[in-house]
Amino acid sequence: MKNDPRWKTALYTTETYNEEGLEGHAFVPEGLNLQTSSPMNDHPGTNPEQLLGMSLSTCLVATMQAVEHEHQLEHHAKVRTKIAYIGERAHYEFLVHAQICVPGVDLTTAAKLVAEVEKRCCVSQLLSGSPNYSIEAVEPWY
């Protein structure tokens, strides 16, 4: 991957670091610095599950905003993600499920929009193909 020529034409790159482990800090040099902790205790900080969920939901809603615009729809979509930490010593996994509601359209139309978004969202593309990842259109939850 480090020799992939696409690195030279990237639209954006960033670097992130964690030098302390799960109970510590993750940071972007001269930028964001987050305290991290395990979801298995009550220590302050965010955990990998939360960071993954926020990354996925942000990418999905941004992509949905573009898709709504292309279909001459006002942006009203909302995304909810659920991340589960499962497994046992030496084999842990995440289960990732995303729900997208698109107020103002019927569920069949929303499902078509979500299918389009699933193929275009960069984070969704990373997760697609995994049996641990699912996404669906849902009725509004509010």
Give a description of the structure.
The strands form two sheets. This protein has a three-stranded antiparallel β-sheet, with no helix packed on it. The model has no long low-confidence stretch (mean pLDDT 95). The longest helix has 23 residues, at 48-70. The chain folds into two domains: 1-46, N-terminal domain of TfIIb; 48-138, GMP Synthetase, Chain A, domain 3 (2-Layer Sandwich), CATH 3.30.300.20. It is globular. Helix content is 30%, strand content 27%. With 142 residues, the chain is α+β, with helices and mostly antiparallel strands. It has helices at 48-70, 107-120, 122-127; strands at residues 17-18, 24-27, 33-36, 78-88, 91-101, 133-138. α1 packs across α2. The protein contains three helices and six strands.
> In total, how many beta strands?
6
Q: Work out the radius of gyration.
A: 17 Å
CATH class of the largest domain: Alpha Beta
- Spatial strand arrangement across the major sheet: 1-2-3
The largest sheet is:
3 strands, antiparallel
Distance between the termini: 43 Å
Uncertain spans, ≥5 residues at pLDDT below 50? none
What is the global morphology? Answer: globular
Mean pLDDT: 95
Query: What is the CATH homology-level superfamily of the largest domain?
Result: K homology (KH) domain
Organism: Ligilactobacillus pabuli
Family: Belongs to the OsmC/Ohr family.
Protein name: Dihydroneopterin aldolase
InterPro entries: KH_dom-like_a/b, OHR, OsmC/Ohr_fam, OsmC/Ohrsf
